[in-house]
Specification:
five-stranded mixed β-sheet; globular; alpha+beta; 4 helices; 27% helix
């Protein structure tokens, strides 16, 4: 039986702990716990249910016919940028990575080689428009950020002519 997730104001949430475990173990969907912890509601180090899903995670689960959504209609992707993000998310997810939000480190996504509860993220992913020139100063900035947080920068671009995503890794190396 497919889990029933709730959509309110465009955000999809999971309220059942068994569904959270199923999504994580069967589909590598991590989401973000946002609820307060019942035993200590004023602390902000550990969060509990509900689990909110990224739009990309929700769209992937809908595409796989793995969930039912109750409440508001889930309508995503809405823009061309959303469509590119979804293609990138699906590509990275299909390669076996756990994929989470990367805004904390200035990227689109963070990649984990295994469950984020057991592994640190290995890559910060940035989506670059096809044919866009990236200035040397920006490359240096991206490389330095990754060095500071011990990660590899993955520059990803979707080619509309071939319908293919290209990935380039960027490592900062001091001389």
């Amino acid at each position: 039986m497919k889990p029933k997730l709730r959509c309110a104001s465009g955000q999809v949430m999971v309220t059942c702990a068994d569904d959270v475990l199923w999504l994580r173990t069967k589909h590598r969907i991590v989401g973000s716990l946002e609820g307060s912890h019942p035993a200590n509601p004023l602390q902000n180090n550990y969060f509990g249910l509900p689990l909110f899903l990224m739009p990309e995670e929700t769209a992937l689960l809908i595409e796989r016919d793995a969930i039912c959504i109750e409440g508001d209609k889930f309508a995503w992707p809405q823009s061309e940028r959303d469509q590119l993000r979804f293609k990138l998310f699906k590509d990275l997810h299909s390669r076996g990575f756990f994929v989470t939000q990367g805004i904390k480190f200035g990227g689109e996504y963070l990649l984990y080689p295994g469950d984020p509860l057991r592994y640190h993220s290995s890559h910060i992913v940035s989506l670059v428009d096809h044919g866009q020139t990236v200035a040397a100063r920006e490359l240096i900035t991206l490389g330095r950020v990754c060095t500071a947080v011990n990660k590899i920068r993955l520059l990803s671009s979707w080619n509309p002519h071939t319908d293919h995503i290209t990935h380039i890794t960027l490592n900062w190396s001091g001389f």
